[in-house]
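Deliverable D2.4 — example input (C-alpha coordinates):
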Protein backbone atom coordinates (compact mmCIF):
# COMPACT_ATOMS: atom_id res chain seq x y z
CA UNK A 1 0.00 0.00 0.00
CA UNK A 2 2.80 2.38 0.87
CA UNK A 3 4.55 1.74 -2.47
CA UNK A 4 1.27 2.37 -4.28
CA UNK A 5 0.86 5.65 -2.42
CA UNK A 6 4.44 6.65 -3.35
CA UNK A 7 3.75 5.90 -7.03
CA UNK A 8 0.57 7.96 -6.88
CA UNK A 9 2.47 10.91 -5.35
CA UNK A 10 5.24 10.62 -7.96
CA UNK A 11 2.65 10.62 -10.74
CA UNK A 12 1.00 13.74 -9.30
CA UNK A 13 4.35 15.54 -9.25
CA UNK A 14 5.40 14.47 -12.75
CA UNK A 15 2.07 14.91 -14.52
CA UNK A 16 0.49 17.82 -12.66
CA UNK A 17 3.59 19.49 -11.14
CA UNK A 18 1.90 19.08 -7.75
CA UNK A 19 4.53 20.33 -5.30
CA UNK A 20 2.36 19.35 -2.33
CA UNK A 21 2.62 15.73 -3.42
CA UNK A 22 6.40 16.06 -3.43
CA UNK A 23 6.24 17.70 0.02
CA UNK A 24 4.45 14.57 1.23
CA UNK A 25 7.24 12.38 -0.16
CA UNK A 26 9.84 14.58 1.52
CA UNK A 27 7.93 14.43 4.80
CA UNK A 28 7.75 10.66 4.59
CA UNK A 29 11.44 10.07 3.83
CA UNK A 30 13.40 13.06 5.18
CA UNK A 31 14.09 11.54 8.61
CA UNK A 32 15.41 8.27 7.23
CA UNK A 33 17.56 10.00 4.57
CA UNK A 34 18.98 12.41 7.14
CA UNK A 35 19.66 9.52 9.56
CA UNK A 36 21.39 7.61 6.74
CA UNK A 37 23.72 10.58 6.18
CA UNK A 38 24.19 11.12 9.91
CA UNK A 39 25.62 7.62 10.21
CA UNK A 40 27.74 7.91 7.06
CA UNK A 41 29.24 11.20 8.28
CA UNK A 42 29.75 9.83 11.80
CA UNK A 43 27.43 12.35 13.39
CA UNK A 44 27.97 15.55 11.42
CA UNK A 45 24.42 16.90 11.49
CA UNK A 46 25.07 20.03 9.42
CA UNK A 47 26.66 18.02 6.63
CA UNK A 48 23.86 15.45 6.90
CA UNK A 49 21.25 18.18 6.48
CA UNK A 50 23.07 19.59 3.44
CA UNK A 51 23.42 16.18 1.82
CA UNK A 52 19.76 15.35 2.51
CA UNK A 53 18.71 18.64 0.93
CA UNK A 54 20.85 17.88 -2.13
CA UNK A 55 19.25 14.43 -2.33
CA UNK A 56 15.72 15.81 -2.40
CA UNK A 57 16.63 18.49 -4.93
CA UNK A 58 18.10 15.82 -7.22
CA UNK A 59 15.10 13.57 -6.63
CA UNK A 60 12.71 16.38 -7.56
CA UNK A 61 14.59 17.38 -10.69
CA UNK A 62 14.90 13.75 -11.83
CA UNK A 63 11.53 12.45 -10.70
CA UNK A 64 10.40 11.84 -14.27
CA UNK A 65 13.23 9.30 -14.60
CA UNK A 66 11.71 7.13 -11.85
CA UNK A 67 10.55 4.05 -13.76
CA UNK A 68 9.10 2.03 -10.86
CA UNK A 69 11.62 -0.78 -11.44
CA UNK A 70 12.32 -0.69 -7.71
CA UNK A 71 10.51 0.90 -4.80
CA UNK A 72 10.59 4.67 -4.53
CA UNK A 73 12.60 4.38 -1.29
CA UNK A 74 15.27 2.27 -3.04
CA UNK A 75 15.45 4.84 -5.84
CA UNK A 76 15.74 7.66 -3.29
CA UNK A 77 18.46 5.86 -1.30
CA UNK A 78 20.36 5.32 -4.56
CA UNK A 79 20.29 9.08 -5.13
CA UNK A 80 21.41 9.64 -1.52
CA UNK A 81 24.23 7.13 -1.98
CA UNK A 82 25.38 8.95 -5.13
CA UNK A 83 25.13 12.35 -3.43
CA UNK A 84 27.37 11.11 -0.60
CA UNK A 85 29.99 9.69 -2.94
CA UNK A 86 29.89 12.82 -5.11
CA UNK A 87 30.55 14.80 -1.94
CA UNK A 88 33.50 12.55 -1.05
CA UNK A 89 34.98 12.89 -4.53
CA UNK A 90 34.70 16.66 -4.65
CA UNK A 91 35.57 17.39 -1.03
CA UNK A 92 38.67 19.54 -0.92
CA UNK A 93 39.18 19.62 2.81
CA UNK A 94 41.39 16.94 4.28
CA UNK A 95 39.65 16.69 7.64
CA UNK A 96 38.87 13.10 8.45
CA UNK A 97 35.41 12.22 9.62
CA UNK A 98 36.97 11.46 13.02
CA UNK A 99 37.43 15.19 13.67
CA UNK A 100 33.74 15.90 13.21
CA UNK A 101 31.52 16.17 16.27
CA UNK A 102 27.93 15.32 16.91
CA UNK A 103 26.17 18.62 17.50
CA UNK A 104 24.84 19.44 20.95
CA UNK A 105 21.17 19.18 20.06
CA UNK A 106 21.50 15.65 18.70
CA UNK A 107 23.79 14.41 21.44
CA UNK A 108 21.64 15.73 24.28
CA UNK A 109 18.76 13.62 23.01
CA UNK A 110 20.77 10.45 23.51
CA UNK A 111 20.64 8.37 26.68
CA UNK A 112 24.30 7.45 26.50
CA UNK A 113 26.41 9.96 24.60
CA UNK A 114 29.62 7.98 25.18
CA UNK A 115 28.22 4.83 23.64
CA UNK A 116 27.07 6.74 20.54
CA UNK A 117 30.46 8.38 20.20
CA UNK A 118 32.10 4.94 20.41
CA UNK A 119 29.77 3.66 17.68
CA UNK A 120 30.67 6.64 15.48
CA UNK A 121 34.36 6.01 16.12
CA UNK A 122 33.87 2.36 15.20
CA UNK A 123 32.01 3.39 12.05
CA UNK A 124 34.85 5.77 11.24
CA UNK A 125 37.29 2.84 11.27
CA UNK A 126 35.44 1.26 8.35
CA UNK A 127 36.01 1.80 4.66
CA UNK A 128 33.32 3.97 3.05
CA UNK A 129 31.79 0.95 1.28
CA UNK A 130 31.61 -1.05 4.52
CA UNK A 131 30.12 1.91 6.40
CA UNK A 132 27.49 2.36 3.71
CA UNK A 133 26.47 -1.31 3.79
CA UNK A 134 26.36 -1.55 7.58
CA UNK A 135 24.41 1.70 7.85
CA UNK A 136 21.83 0.60 5.30
CA UNK A 137 21.48 -2.89 6.81
CA UNK A 138 21.43 -2.21 10.55
CA UNK A 139 20.41 1.41 10.86
CA UNK A 140 18.06 1.76 7.89
CA UNK A 141 16.77 -1.83 8.00
CA UNK A 142 17.33 -2.46 4.29
CA UNK A 143 17.60 -5.99 2.92
CA UNK A 144 20.78 -7.24 1.27
CA UNK A 145 18.99 -7.22 -2.08
CA UNK A 146 17.91 -3.59 -1.64
CA UNK A 147 21.44 -2.62 -0.58
CA UNK A 148 22.70 -4.26 -3.77
CA UNK A 149 20.18 -2.21 -5.77
CA UNK A 150 21.15 1.00 -3.98
CA UNK A 151 24.92 0.56 -4.22
CA UNK A 152 25.17 -1.37 -7.45
CA UNK A 153 27.28 -4.07 -5.74
CA UNK A 154 26.50 -7.76 -6.23
CA UNK A 155 24.73 -9.34 -3.23
CA UNK A 156 27.83 -11.39 -2.43
CA UNK A 157 29.91 -8.22 -2.22
CA UNK A 158 27.32 -6.62 0.08
CA UNK A 159 27.49 -9.69 2.34
CA UNK A 160 31.30 -9.50 2.37
CA UNK A 161 31.24 -5.80 3.27
CA UNK A 162 28.75 -6.50 6.07
CA UNK A 163 30.81 -9.36 7.42
CA UNK A 164 34.07 -7.39 7.42
CA UNK A 165 32.38 -4.33 8.90
CA UNK A 166 30.80 -6.33 11.74
CA UNK A 167 34.13 -7.95 12.52
CA UNK A 168 36.03 -4.64 12.52
CA UNK A 169 33.40 -2.93 14.66
CA UNK A 170 33.25 -5.83 17.12
CA UNK A 171 37.02 -5.82 17.48
CA UNK A 172 37.14 -2.05 18.01
CA UNK A 173 34.32 -2.08 20.55
CA UNK A 174 35.83 -5.03 22.48
CA UNK A 175 39.15 -3.17 22.63
CA UNK A 176 37.27 -0.21 24.10
CA UNK A 177 35.53 -2.03 26.91
CA UNK A 178 32.37 -3.45 25.35
CA UNK A 179 31.85 -7.13 25.99
CA UNK A 180 28.80 -7.64 23.79
CA UNK A 181 26.42 -8.03 26.74
CA UNK A 182 25.40 -4.38 26.97
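Example output (designed residues):
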Amino acid sequence: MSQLNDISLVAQVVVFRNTRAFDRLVGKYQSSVRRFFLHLTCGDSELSDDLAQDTFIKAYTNLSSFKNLSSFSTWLYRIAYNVFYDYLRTRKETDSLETRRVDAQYSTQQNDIGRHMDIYRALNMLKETERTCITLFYMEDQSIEKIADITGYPTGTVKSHLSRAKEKMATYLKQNGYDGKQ
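DSSP finds nine helices and no strands in the chain.
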